[in-house]
Design a protein that fits this description.
9-stranded mixed sheet, alpha/beta, 2 domains, Alkaline Phosphatase, subunit A, about 20% strand, 4-stranded antiparallel sheet, about 475 residues, about 30% helix, disordered N terminus, single chain
């Protein structure tokens, strides 16, 4: 049972971010095991939280905290084209986020924020308050905190503080579980300390451990997963981790006053991964991608390891939980093969061909193809020509070649049994305004920033992509 202490006049907001937390587990399968999350749900607003396209950590958390879509932000995943050459790609770190985030708006209004572990906050930038960066932070040796003296405080409290677990795609499952719990408890210890010792009006933390648990152990708990084995030794691993988080949430609730609004949010959901679609293998076999020396079956290599014949190549792809297709256009790419006048015709034909790819049994795969210039409000920097959800994200995109098949059941970057789902989850609980178990539909993660600003009586700026959760 959640307990609340101390009454303060000023409205505050406490956001618990759980990367990849799955709504079907929280709201259905594990509900009876999660008393604190269930309490919040039964006394507040809750439901699925639609993610960005693509539904992936980068850009999703930045879309949430800016209320801008990926095109407005100008990055479309972890790695993005720096120019129209064939080799220059860059990881979208914190300095790629040029739009104001929620804590910047609050700081301009004179309010203090504590921001812990939010993706794309390294390199750190000044805020009114305190910030410790998270996922994508290189190491403890870098300047990962603001103000700078906060780094010393963190390392004095937790000398081995970690931002992520190493090598989460591994068969060493027991070692991974130990690492995830160690990292998560370090993050929890820092949250506890900051709650007790630092002033704040807005507090946001993100735990990446949920995502790591899902990718490593989803097949152990999902009977519909092709690799599921009944009564396997890790069947309850994800459940126990969810219970661990729920227990800690109960501890935090006991520290918060009646004027603190609580949000539990995830950036996307999770679902089984049936296999991988070898996107470059398919493009090669269907005449879109050409090599000066063709790949040999059984010699699996990244596409970058082969000498591509750009004069005969019309498109190439990138791997990951979703696919990205880049087209080779004359006057745009240095060796462009598609006349600009044929671009839309070629893109539409390739989209139709990708969506028509069957699954290994010849049944419809239900692939979805998105054109960035049609789904975003604008497209800054260099977007892919297409974003592809193979099998509606039940199949990942595999960029390597040499499989001699369009399909594979082994991930080319290490063991992984989970893909992302388009919908994450949210719970909004205001102890001063109890709303008995009110589900909400059609809520988008870009709604979080304007909703929080409104709740904190800060002017909601014009031009945000999201609306208010009511």
């Amino acid at each position: 049972m959640a307990l609340f202490s101390r009454f303060k006049k000023h409205k505050k907001v406490f956001i618990i971010g759980l990367d990849c937390m799955a709504p079907d587990l929280v709201f259905e399968k594990y509900t009876s095991h999660l008393p604190n999350l269930s309490y919040l749900k039964e006394n507040g607003l809750w439901g699925d939280l639609e993610s960005s396209i693509p539904a992936i950590t980068v850009p999703a958390w930045s879309c949430m905290t800016t209320s801008k879509d990926p095109g407005q932000l100008g990055f479309y995943g972890f790695r993005n084209r720096k120019d129209y050459s064939y080799e220059n790609m860059a990881i979208a770190m914190g300095n790629a986020v040029q739009e104001k985030r929620i804590w910047h708006y609050l700081g301009e209004a004179g309010l203090d924020s504590i921001v812990l572990g939010v993706p794309q906050t390294y390199p750190v930038r000044p805020i009114k308050g305190n910030l410790v960066s998270g996922f994508l932070t290189p190491s403890q040796d870098c300047d990962f905190a603001y103000p700078p003296l906060l780094k010393k405080e963190v390392l004095k409290l937790i000398p081995e503080y970690s931002f992520d677990v190493k090598d989460f795609r591994t068969n060493e499952k027991d070692r991974l579980i130990e690492q995830i719990y160690k990292m998560t408890d370090e993050h929890f210890q820092l949250i506890d300390t900051m709650l007790d010792k630092k002033p704040w009006d807005f507090f946001m933390s993100v735990e990446i451990g949920v995502d790591r648990m899902h990718h490593a152990f989803w097949h152990c708990q999902d009977p519909e997963h092709p690799k599921y084995e009944k009564s396997n030794p890790y069947e309850n691993t994800i459940l126990e981790y969810y219970r661990h988080i729920d227990q800690k949430i109960g501890h935090w609730l006991s520290k918060l006053d009646q004027n603190t609004l609580i949000l539990v949010v995830s950036d996307h959901g999770a679902q089984r991964m049936d296999g991988g679609l070898c996107v470059n293998e398919w493009l090669w076999k269907n005449g879109y991608l050409a090599f000066k020396k063709n790949p040999k079956p059984g010699q699996i290599k990244k596409v970058e390891a082969f000498e591509i014949d750009w004069n005969r190549t019309r498109a190439w792809g990138s791997g990951g939980y979703y696919g990205r297709i880049f087209m080779n256009v004359k006057g745009r790419e240095p060796g462009g093969a598609i006349p600009q006048s044929d671009y839309e015709k070629e893109r539409n034909q390739l989209r139709d061909a990708l969506e028509a790819i069957p699954d290994p049994d010849g049944k419809p795969m239900n692939t979805k193809v998105f054109f960035p210039d049609q789904i975003y409000r604008e497209t800054k920097n260099i977007p892919p020509d297409m974003i592809v959800y193979f099998g509606n994200l039940y199949w990942r995109s595999v960029g390597s070649l040499g499989y001699d098949s369009w399909y594979t059941y082994e991930n080319d970057t290490g063991p992984d049994s989970c893909n992302h789902a388009q919908n994450g989850m949210f719970i909004l609980f205001d102890p001063s305004d109890i709303r008995k178990n009110q589900p909400r539909r059609h809520t988008h993660l870009m709604d979080i920033t304007p909703t929080v600003l409104k709740k904190m009586n800060v002017r909601v700026p014009k031009g945000l992509a999201g609306g208010l959760i009511r």
